[in-house]
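Exercise 7. Predict the structure of Putative squalene-hopene cyclase from Streptomyces bingchenggensis.
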Amino acid sequence: MTTDAIEFTESVERSLALAVGALRRRQDPAGYWKGDFETSLIGEAAEVILHRFLRLTDDAVTTAAAKTILAEQSATGGWAAYHKGPDELLLSVFCYVALRLAGHDPDEPAMRAAAESIRTNGGVEAVDNPTMLAWLALIGLWPWRDIPLIPPELVLLPSRFPGNIYQIGAAARGIVVANSLFMAHRPVTPAGFDIKELFARPVATARQLPRPRAVRIATTLSHWYARHPIGFLRRRAIRKAAKWLVRTQERDGSWGGNWPQTANVVVGLDAVGYQQDHPVVESAMAALDRYVVTRNGQHRLEMWTSVVMDTALAMSAAAMTGDPGARSAAERAVRWLLTNQVTELGDWAVLTKDPVPGGWPYEFANDANPDADDTSFAVAALRRLHPPGTHAAVDDACARACRWMLSQQGKDGGWAAFEPMRWQLPGRDTLARIGFLEAPSADITGHVLEALGAEGQGHTPAARRGVEWLRRNQRPDGSWPGWWACYHLHGTSAAVTGLTACGVPGTDPTVTRACAWIVAHQQDDGGWGEDIRALHDPAWIGTGDSTPSQTSWALLALIAAGRADSEPVRAGLDFLIRTQQTDGDWDEPWHTWVVHHDGLYWRDSLLRLVYPVMAMSAYRDRMGGSARTSGSVRTDGSARADGTEWR
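Solution. The predicted structure, encoded as tokens:
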């Protein structure tokens, strides 16, 4: 290397040392890592609605949530779904309703501004998410007659029959079954007010707005059947649906390890007569309380916990650094990760031939629905610490995990996060948009291929099918859209790292086109960024404020493709060095992760640190830097990247 290259590598190592110190400090004494899961305020608003529906008399939660909602109101009156985003209609409606339930008068200046924002964005009648409108119907603010109903008879359909619950995406399955229960009864706990001020049109109703033909047909048919059900089938379906929900409750009292699914199930069970002192409901309510956190003095709701993802990625990052202290921290996480591998059959097994458990879920508790993404992260992390043949327990866990991932590969060769796409009826795109279905994606497929490569299975027929899926689905411009993060940057990075892990060379035309796309979208400051708006507006694809995590995704792809010694990589690393904070961490207020493409996005306070550590470590290794962080640079966050002390 030239003198300049050596000096630059050393500056990367100094920055890396700072980051390693920050990463080690973030580890929980139990061995895992967990960042803050931060979304919009849709959860806090729904929490207030839930308390009203259940007639909970303690209004402390409502008061605290309303205070947070008011504090986050935008200058234009509504509420944004992501950092620097515009007012979002559905979110603003929910926040407004929550404030009304908390006792705020519609004539207050803040409430008038909110109502004006909602009307400007089309009015409440323009909300087109039926499952969210159902929550307004629960408190009498929307007519049940205008919502397509989910019949509980779905649970009676044979498992391979079109439209049965096992063709619905795993992440939404419990919500669908729960919705079918309360939609069968259509209960109402009156809010005590109306929301006429939120309509953009005089005396508007949902029926006066144009709706997609499929929605109109579904609404008409579902309500006709609701008025004329086959009695014994309806009773049998309700009993079976309730039993299915009780059977699938997780060990921590939740469903799916998350707040939204648990809250919907609580409403569903309430509708069929489960009292709040029933053990199942008591356990569920305790689980809901555990999602409440205080952050910066505010009442916040962590609707999901990304603990397995955060732990596995942090383990990989720590292992990649070569730092003895970081590796020791990662080793402490090995036992926690192995303990949390799913060893029982779950929902995924119903339509899987010769099912073998072995996946990992996203959350602390979601044994019914492990996912390929987090399983791939876990395998990659374990193999970075213990290559095949060096640790018996890790060998066994990784073998079972890979068997499980292979069993969930789609017929077309790609992977979705949970299960292969099996939906056989119309409406696939609409249902995917609101989170009811999930198709295979480049980010999940790339991550699985990377894990298979780490396990020594990168040249197997299954891996080759995954590679071919990526080749077929590459966009003409060289990119891939992701699904669970924003957007083409994430999909393209995952695809490139997955392809190269399976032996595809950096000179392969598929990889070359991808790298050219990445380089073409580098920002003037040296970083990379892609705004959430890219999900809905092609003009934003590959474009946005540079962020530490997205810059690192781009760097990891370029380095994996053999382009470490290039000006774009050096400029990206320089961006990371310049934007690093004194404690070794980075600031990232942008929402770069996706729950639902229909408006629910999140950010992770740990991954903004983890990915830069990975990128810097990968660069140092490719450029022949030290095998470990320099002994002259402490990893406690006390040294600057230029070698001087922080003051």
